[in-house]
Write a structure and sequence with these properties.
The complex is a heterodimer of chains A (about 525) and B (about 90). With about 525 residues, chain A is mainly alpha-helical. Chain A has 20 helices and 6 strands. Chain A is globular and about 85 Å long. The N and C termini of chain A lie far apart (about 75 Å). The chains are: A mainly alpha (about 525), B mainly alpha (about 90).
């Protein structure tokens, strides 16, 4: 046992270490050290917590052991290409933990009832439960969409089916049991508790049912979204008024779950980085709210750091798409009536082959590669790295132009290229590379579309008007590697593909790069 | 109320610190930043541990808290570990 003061001092050191963690994240050289600081901070905080009161270690150990094994196995086995899913699901566990802690704290407070429950605890409990539940269910949806098993029409693998149906069944069964055993059975269906029980069951059915559908939109979705938002606020106020009513608390969690599912379900594709960043922010805010529930500063500090971090990333992502957060969460992206006809735009498209490209690459000085989600799908990062190394051997300067929202999460392309051992100095930011694009001999666009669409600069009526893009069209020659002329997420044709200095190489990303390597070698 | 104002002060100041720190992180490190901050948000583990270990707490409260401990631990362990795996790849070649 240590004194409360000592424990608080240790918490303070832990909070300081978390701050250093984020500070050292500002450079790849110091980032590893930063991560160690974070681990150390967490260990200190845990030691301080378990020694600050006389606690039963057995129960704690069970939870830690289960969590540690799952976390370890998942983190070691996950592939770098699946990192967006991993980050998505981890957010969810943080949010879920916040709901559970708030619930457990509320039960404990009601049972002791020595001094009544303070207003701070009541409001914080509501915030913790609501934000936590939105994060948990929202993250599950983001995970499911990134792992491509939610709201898709195609056939699923067995593991995907197990998760998809398992989650829905557990949600429906769990809420059904809770609503019946704690509400309807002891109090009768007509009683307030019974009605709350019914409410919980309805929410469970909604969540479970919606997640089994093969489409991500349905009529009345926005109305239901609004309704579940209002209901969350309403139930939240009721929990503040009657904190000792546990049924209300669970109802709040259930309604928050419906809201979380609806907020994330219709978002997909290029908007995914925004959602991941936003959920990251929520998981932090939920932790901070939990800190207010149990009056613990280290939770408040760590939670608000993460909350702030997520908000900034969200902002960066929204700005990079020239859209507001409201537009991402509630809007529909797609072609407008003004959108030019694809056949008309693509009249002058020129297709090319690896041999032709090899001849063109002979003697080039500057090459810029612009990767997009297509590179991740094709897992072409290693081939790209070999290709670049080969050109460098021949005296060319090869760099990468990275758009902030390329891929499915903030920094997605950077992680993939780092995995392929590309020097981070070669990964240039958008504004940086745009300034030099006119001196670039060959710009190779690999699996990117909307982020290089010059329409964003030229056509104020286009859905992506004003979105900052990588000015690939300003390079002397542009090679676009793409499987077909199908539109990107914005659903509009890309005049870059039909420009005079553009050549299209229709192929899978990895095969294309490999063919180019072979062709250049043969060309000598 | 005094307790609340103190906690609120900490909350607001920490948000400012967060804003200042994160704006300095380059896009290259945005993914590791997210997974690291994600691991930090697993700090809820502290709350879960305190509730799960408290012998006087009702059994239901402790049971729920143990599940919370497991969730938060997944978050912490998984988060720090994937961050480490990613950062190990960001090497500068000589």
């Amino acid at each position: 046992m240590i004194s409360k003061e000592l424990a608080n001092l240790l918490y303070l050191i832990a909070a300081g270490l978390f701050i250093f963690d984020l500070k050292w994240m500002s450079h790849p050289r110091t980032a590893v050290r930063g991560n160690y600081a974070g681990v150390l901070g967490m260990l200190l905080a845990i030691v301080a917590a378990v020694l600050s009161e006389s606690l039963d270690f057995g129960t704690m150990a069970i939870g830690v052991a289960i969590g540690a094994v799952i976390g370890l196995v998942a983190a070691i086995r996950i592939k770098m290409t699946s990192m967006p899913e991993m980050v998505g699901i981890l957010n969810g566990f943080g949010g879920g933990a916040s709901v559970l802690v708030a619930g457990a704290a509320l039960i404990a407070a009601v049972a002791s009832m020595s001094e009544g429950i303070s207003m701070q605890t009541r409001v914080a409990t509501v915030a913790s439960a609501l934000i936590g539940s939105v994060t948990f269910f929202g993250s599950y949806v983001a995970f499911g969409k990134l792992a491509e098993f939610l709201a898709v029409k195609w056939k699923l693998y067995t593991w995907q089916k197990v998760i998809k149906f398992g989650f829905s069944i557990v949600t429906i069964a769990g809420t059904g049991w809770l609503g019946f055993a704690a509400g309807i059975q002891p109090h009768g269906a007509g009683s307030p508790e019974g009605l709350m029980g019914i409410g919980i069951i309805v929410c469970g059915l909604l969540i479970g049912g919606i997640l089994l559908r093969k489409k991500d939109r349905f009529p009345g979705m926005n109305a239901l979204k609004g309704l579940s938002f209002l209901a969350s606020i309403g139930v939240g106020v009721m929990v503040v008024q009657q904190p000792d009513n546990m049924m209300l608390f669970w109802l709040l969690g259930a309604v928050g779950g419906v809201l979380g599912v609806l907020l994330t379900l219709s978002i997909g594709g290029a908007d995914m980085p925004v959602v991941i960043a936003l959920l990251n922010s929520y998981s932090g805010l939920a932790a901070a709210a939990t800190g207010f529930v149990i009056n613990n500063n280290v939770l408040i500090i760590a939670g608000s750091l993460v909350g702030a971090s997520g908000i900034i990333l969200t902002q960066i992502m929204c700005k990079a798409m020239n859209r507001s957060l409201t537009n991402v969460l509630f809007g529909v992206m797609g072609p407008t009536s003004e959108t030019p006809d694809a056949d008309e735009v693509y009249k002058t498209v020129k297709s090319t082959s690896a041999d032709e490209i090899a001849m063109m690459l002979d003697g080039v000085e500057r090459v810029v590669i612009v990767p997009g989600y297509g590179m991740a799908v094709a897992q072409a990062q290693h081939a790209v790295k070999n290709f670049a190394a080969m050109l460098e051997e021949r005296g060319a300067l090869v760099e990468y132009g990275i758009h902030p929202v390329a891929g499915r999460m903030p920094g997605h392309m950077n992680v993939l290229l780092a995995e392929a051992d590309v020097d981070y100095d070669k990964l240039r930011e958008m504004d940086d590379i745009n300034a030099e694009m006119e001196q670039v001999d060959v710009c190779i666009v690999l699996g990117a579309n909307d982020v290089v669409n010059p329409v964003a600069r030229t056509d104020p009526k286009s859905p992506i008007a004003g979105m900052p893009i990588i000015d690939a069209d300003k390079a002397r020659t542009v090679i676009v590697i793409k499987r077909s002329l199908s539109p990107g997420f914005a659903g509009i044709p890309n005049p870059l593909f039909a420009m005079e200095n553009t050549l299209m190489f229709f192929s899978d990303g990895k095969d294309a790069v490999q063919e180019m390597i072979n062709a250049v070698k043969e060309n000598e | 109320m005094a307790v609340f104002v103190g906690a609120l002060t900490v909350f607001v100041l920490a948000i400012f610190v967060g804003f200042e720190l994160i704006t300095k992180v380059p896009p290259t490190l945005h993914t590791p930043l997210m997974s690291a901050s994600n691991a930090i948000s697993g700090i809820t583990l502290i709350g879960a541990l305190l509730l799960a270990g408290q012998v006087d707490n009702p059994a239901l409260s402790r049971t729920i808290a143990v599940v919370g401990v497991a969730f938060a631990t997944i978050n912490v362990v998984g988060g720090f570990l994937v961050t480490h795996r990613m950062l190990a790849m960001f090497k500068k070649k000589k």
